[in-house]
Queue: 4 jobs
Job 1
Amino acid sequence: MVRVLFSGRRLIATLLIILGAGVFCWLGFWQLDRHYQRAALNQRIAAGLAQPPAPLNTAGDLATLDYRPVTIRGVFDPAHEILLRNRSLNGITGYHIITPLRLSDGSGAAVLIDRGWIPLTESTPDARRKLAPAPGEVVVAGIARQPEVYLGGPKDPPPGPERPRLDAWFRVDVARIQKQVPYPLLPIFIETQPVPGAPPALPQPVPPPELDAGPHLGYALQWFAFAIILVAGYGAIQYRSLPPPS
């Protein structure tokens, strides 16, 4: 049977089946890898969120902070506020408002605060002025996050003479946002969180992502099943086409 599959007119078809099964298996292992990455991320998020809120130590290793509850004191600067594009809440598309908080520690630095979601209708400058944060010194509690880097999808346009400032961004790329802010920014940003029992108000803080396993394991099993079906089906068809033994 094996010799027949790799000889004559069946050779090309057999090689194509092997190639197709190999591609299906590669896609299955790729989805398995994504499943393990998702599990590792969920574990990291759960471990960070399980820690009690602590004052942000700006002199510490900020690169290790991700999904860590923190508090920080400072004064909001709405003049350098930006929007984060393509953010939805309960199926409604809108923006997140990102406002710098100038720190009260005397360093002159600031940290970007994701104050939450607003609908598209509230994104104009006049509407956002009505949503301005409280003036004066405040204590902000939230979750420290690492900057968002470009991993595909739409790109934020580069600054230039014709575009010295970008008001709406696709991601919180702190290094690039720094180019349009006149004071140093910490290399992290902070997401405010919903307050239990508080009435809904804009901007509306968004809770952390759901820690589910996602669909990747199911996709992996599907691709492996496709590979088995392809090989087994081809083998069955070729077996039935063989002449009966004499």
Note: The first strand starts at residue 54 and ends at 55.
Job 2
Amino acid sequence: MKVLTIISMVALLAACAATGPAQYGPSGASNFGYSSTKIEVDRYRIVYRGSGGMPPEMVEDYALRRAAELALANGYDWFRVASRDMAREQRGGVSIGAGFGSGSYGRHGGGSVGVGGNVGRVGAQDYFTARMEVIMGEGEAPDDGGAYDALSVIDRFVDPGTGIAQ
């Protein structure tokens, strides 16, 4: 009974220690946020690591936001995602299981029976990482549905009432 109480308390502490979505920004000591690498003159690799509790859609949106920022900072008007990948990792929580058995010792014999189970990870959180490679261009964005207008992407993240980026 004490073991079950201790496991429950550990699971509760793990759930309480979970943090909400991180704010948008470069990855730092927390390792959450964006990083970008220039591959060619007009091509970048962008990685956005979301914190626990951040939905995958938000992680991808933040990677697109970083692509738009890079495009504008380098004199481009639009960008196209050449490749993208979303990875999911589950961290934290407590794995709960049970096992029973018997054995033999010296002259005393006995059968051996084992039963085990695992009911999953309690209090675990999903962490998503978006990776994308983008190609940037100048002028009018191609009208094929695959290009993003950099200013439009940035405007999506600005609060119209305050003009402050979200």
Note: Residues 56-73 form the longest helix (18 residues).
Job 3
Amino acid sequence: MTESTKLLEEFQELYEVTKLCYQCGTCAGGCPVFRQYPGFNPRRVMEKLLMRDFSEQIFDDQQIWYCSMCYTCSVRCPQGIDIGHVITEIKNLAVQMKNAPPGIVAEMEAIMETGVTAAISKGIMKRRETLELPELPPPNLDEIRKIFEATGAAKYINQIKEETS
């Protein structure tokens, strides 16, 4: 099975999940990102799937990356569609198609190399101490790298690094 055939099948599975959507707009109405940035609209994402827009356009549209994964859309959907999960799957497919924004790739690389996207500052450590919170355990880089290998993310990051160097 070719990669594009596999992606098309996965896209078809997303359609099956979304075909109950009747475009009521509840997802967009409750979306905190849409209120601040109307360029991102979960209803439009669902519409593309309903129209069987299986073109690469849905992956080229960088708007999907604005989703904050709050799942308000999923909780409020009167049809019980897990829209947040659908958007996550579209993001996963976009990554498989090597179409993630550079910032996302940089975060993925940071997690793979260090286990975190940002270092914990001395101020935060001091604040934790003041609040009598336990010391943060170091990330298990072996486990993180296994996940990156198993999901293909490590290969993707390495390809991006090679293309940009």
Note: The chain has two domains: 3-96, 102-164.
Job 4
Amino acid sequence: MRATYTFDVFATLDGYGSYGPEGDWGGYWGKQGPELLQHRLAQYEQAQRMVFGANTFRDFARMLGSSADLSDVDAWGLRMRDLPATVLSTTLAGPFDWPNATVVSGDPVEVVGRLKQESDLPLRSHGSLTLNWALMAAGLVDVVQVTVFPVISGRSGVDRIFEGAADFDLELIGSRTLDGRTQELLYRPSLH
């Protein structure tokens, strides 16, 4: 396959991808630092195509669309919005408040398989948990990039990043500590 596909996701140490309404963590659980933000911007400044499921795209469009208040948005988020994006959905219809977004319906495994064959750009998905579990199970995810923030959100945590996914073996292919507290882990997944 031609293009690589990276599943990029944020998590707490106990594996949650977000926090509930009672949680007062704020974005990144309040742990983003300058090194993390510079590193994220460098990753998103590279030419690539974003791939989103419908729910994640709706959330990002609400937060990052051109009509949203962007005064508190980090530079990497703005850059992500400007990258070409493929949105996998059978329910969404444009126009969208998001430049360069194209909705494609159909079986996500077939669509991403075709994208990997045809794209001259690497593919990246931030979030879109259910979509990426299916793509991992089909062997289409080359890299799982988990950024682990130094918090445990046992009471307020929502959306465990791998709850409901198949079983996978992970080969560690890279790691980095950012701001002395946040871990970025890169894995090559294979179905167990």
Note: The domain at 5-191 is CATH 3.40.430.10 (Dihydrofolate Reductase, subunit A).
